[in-house]
Amino acid sequence: MPASKILMITGDFTEDYETMVPFQTLLACGYTVDAVCPGKKAGETVATAIHDFEGDQTYSEKRGHNFALNATFDSVRAEDYDALVIPGGRAPEYLRLNADVIKTVLHFFDAGKRVAAICHGAQLLAAAGVLKGRTCSAYPACRPEVELAGGIYADISISDAVSDGNLVTAPAWPAHPSWLRQFMAVLDASSIPETNAA
């Protein structure tokens, strides 16, 4: 059955594009998307950070927009959602310390639901222990975490994405066209496709 209700878990200094672009794109395509942050309520905001690639040894970081949450983490039930989106940025680094966040991530994998993660979102997947034997892309600095968690790191172009069954991942926001296209294909599929990189 195609998925229609999506949960997005985000937090302060989530990456701006990796939060706002999928949120708005999925809404525009007719999906219901509830964006939540532990410790915050619907109507409150999270600060975003803009990570850019400007020729330095790592990305630069600048203050982004305030992103408005439209649901309350403590009130949502993972069981009510068909899919999960995990943006990157700095938020996954501390969200992975929250036992309720980990429990939520585990629900989506245990239930075989669709999951999309981008960039540092893989930190949450690694912390939840759901990557063993799974192909997963992430920001290259997260490669050790993916591999230490038993995942197979997909060393792909920054503009590409990879699907492994119900899991769709990408290295960073330049992959949005490929990442969102693959995720929507998985969302709309009556059955979960096999591994695909593009």
Describe the structure.
With 198 residues, the protein is of the alpha/beta class. It has six helices and twelve strands. Strands 3-1-6-7-11-10-12 form a seven-stranded mixed sheet, sandwiched between helices. It has a three-stranded mixed sheet with strand order 2-4-5, covered by helices on one side. It has a two-stranded parallel ribbon with strand order 8-9. α3 crosses α4. The protein is globular, with a radius of gyration of 15 Å. Belongs to the peptidase C56 family. Residues 5-184 form the DJ-1/PfpI domain. This is DJ-1/PfpI family protein. It holds the Pfam family DJ-1_PfpI. It comes from Rhizobium bangladeshense.
Features of the shown structure:
alpha/beta, about 30% helix, globular, seven-stranded mixed beta sheet, about 200 residues, single chain
How would you summarize this macromolecular structure in one to three sentences?
The protein is of the alpha/beta class. The protein is built from six helices and twelve strands.
Task: Please render the helix and strand layout as text.
Elements: E1 5-9, E2 14-15, H1 16-28, E3 32-36, E4 45-52, E5 60-68, E6 83-86, H2 91-95, H3 99-110, E7 114-118, H4 122-128, E8 135-136, H5 143-148, E9 152-153, E10 162-164, E11 167-170, H6 176-188, E12 196-197
Parallel strand pairs: 1-3, 1-6, 2-4, 6-7, 7-11, 8-9
Antiparallel strand pairs: 4-5, 10-11, 10-12
Helix pairs in contact: 3-4
The total strand number stands at 12
Query: Which spans of ≥5 residues are poorly predicted at pLDDT below 50?
Result: none
Distance between the termini: 24 Å
The class by helix and strand makeup works out as alpha/beta
Helix content: 25-40%
Order of helices and strands: EEHEEEEHHEHEHEEEHE
Mean residue pLDDT: 94
Largest sheet: 7 strands, mixed
State the oligomer.
single chain
Q: Supply the number of helical segments.
A: 6
Task: Evaluate the radius of gyration.
Answer: 15 Å
Q: Could you say which overall geometry the principal axes of the C-alpha atoms support?
A: globular
Strand order, main sheet: write it out: 3-1-6-7-11-10-12
Strand content: 25-35%
Family: Belongs to the peptidase C56 family.
Domain DJ-1/PfpI: 5-184
Protein name: DJ-1/PfpI family protein
Pfam family, one: DJ-1_PfpI
